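name: query_chain
kind: protein
chains: 1
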Amino acid sequence: MAYKSLRDFVHRLEQAGELVRVRVPVSPDLEMTEIADRVMKSPPERNKALLFENVRGSDIPVLMNMFGSARRMAWALGVDDLEELRTRLERLIKPEIPRGLSDKLRLGAELLPVLRSVGPRMVSKGACQEVVITDNPSLDKLPILKSWPKDGGRFITLPQVITRDPRTGKRNVGMYRLQVYDERTLGMHWQIHKGGAEHARVAQDMGIQHIPVAVALGGDPAEIWVASAPLPPDIDEYMLAGWLRGKPVDLVKCVTQPLEVPADADIVIEGYVDVTELRTEGPFGDHTGYYTPPDLYPVMHVTAITHRRHPIYPATIVGRPPMEDYWMGKATERLFLPLLQLFLPEVLDMNMPAEGVFHNLLIVKMHKRYPGHVRKVIHGIWGLGLMALTKAVVVVDEWVDIHNLSEVAWQVLGNVDWARDVIITEGPVDALDHASYRPNFGGKIGVDATAKDEWDGYTRPWPERIEMLPEIKELVDRRWQEYGIDSPER
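structure:
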């Protein structure tokens, strides 16, 4: 489903009872964080998207927690359930061979919208440029939040940061926080492993000092989310957004930079990054639950701000999990499972729990078929794109419910011989990993929590799991009401 605007998505959330309008005056300096943090960690009936309509210092409303549940995250990407992302992509990359006319028609009906939306398209004008400010554009007019007490300042937290490779011209859309230094400059926190940072390195190699940058805020929520997706460098994020929407992303030319931005965006900040100019950025209360310490990052100089006549400013906060970004990561997990299975077909499912803050823990269940199979999967995961940053990979048998952390813990603690079933190595880690003794490089662990047999050099019989007979379970199901256990008088 394609949304015409972020306001269109807000309308859907409100109609479904998934939005609360906060009409009283609130401060973007810490107060909105505390409100949103409490809501994000609330039971499902209280966990709603928040539209702050009266933000002190700005006349622009702020939308927070729009992705903060499985339901809202799914709606943002055009499905009713996140699991549909996996099945849709599976049908696309692993289609069954059609056996008759009806199968051919079905396959054609599924592929035709994909072929029509494989890439973005240029349009002559867009709502994002209803208001154009090139004469003294000021970031101070935007309701940019300071999230945590010791943050280095105010940060833009839910952007689509658009750059092009200076050599190939290929676009990258990333989600990097931006610290406000003053009304015309921002700190660009693109980490060493990210596409924007690679574009800056290419520019330096080519002797180019300035690279154009555009920061799009708002628009269709699918366009926002794809900025966080860990796509290979040669795949355009807006092509993925078009596939999710079932409709191409319309792009318009920036007014001061040689870039294109989504026509339906609410706000666009145009500018350039001087790759030779570094400035202290941070600290920042991060998704690890700790402050990321200050470090040197490039500076973005603002050349223009454009926006809708009545824009909505999208924002999120990160901190001690679970928070809104967990559901953004869960969508990534579901969508990218079929891609991982192209390289590791023995993998049946994976789970990146909130407690692992994405890069600290990956739980995998698999078909185990030969000696060393588990170790092959662990090393294979460490060799796949940004999965290389995963600190801990835990592998369990195919019957384990990996989304039940209690069941996983039972298997790991009971099945692992800690002297033999563990791989400890070193490799690349996330830039936010504060435990590693060197930046971006540290220890990693792989755990084989599967049942062992002679393939593994296990010389004893593996014990059998305790399970009730199916006919007894069916009997108890049938007679449950007779037992009176759920009776109100008890």
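note: The radius of gyration is 24 Å.
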